[in-house]
Amino acid sequence: MTGTDKLGQAKLIIEEYYSEADCGIFFCQNMVGDPMNTIYEDDDLTIDICYSYSYFEVFGLTEYEEIELEEYYYGLRGR
């Protein structure tokens, strides 16, 4: 999967699950052991969701893609 495809896929998943995880998006694994569910996984991209605290963890994007996805995520608040 190319970078653009990964970013596009991540945006689709984030938008689909946004109402269940509207308290944040992170690009590193939580250190406190919050219960996570993997909602998307392939060779290059993994997206986990914490239903208890309503946030996402995303792995496999470049720093530039992370910034773009984070801007997209926070833009969903106004919709």
Structure, described:
The N and C termini lie far apart (29 Å). By secondary structure, the protein is an alpha+beta fold. It has one domain (3-78). Strand 2 (37-41) and strand 3 form a beta hairpin. The chain has helices spanning 3-17, 63-75; strands spanning 25-26, 37-41, 46-50, 55-59. The longest helix has 15 residues, at 3-17. It is built from two helices and four strands. The model has no long low-confidence stretch (mean pLDDT 94). Helix 1 packs parallel to helix 2.
Provide keyphrases for this structure:
79 residues, alpha+beta, four-stranded mixed sheet, 2 helices
Short description:
This protein is of the alpha+beta class.
Q: Give the tally of β-strands.
A: 4
SS-derived structural category: alpha+beta
Residues in helices, as a percent range: 25-40%
**Mean pLDDT, all residues:** 94
Number of helices: 2
Total domain count: 1
Rg calculated over all Cα atoms:
12 Å
Low-confidence stretches: none
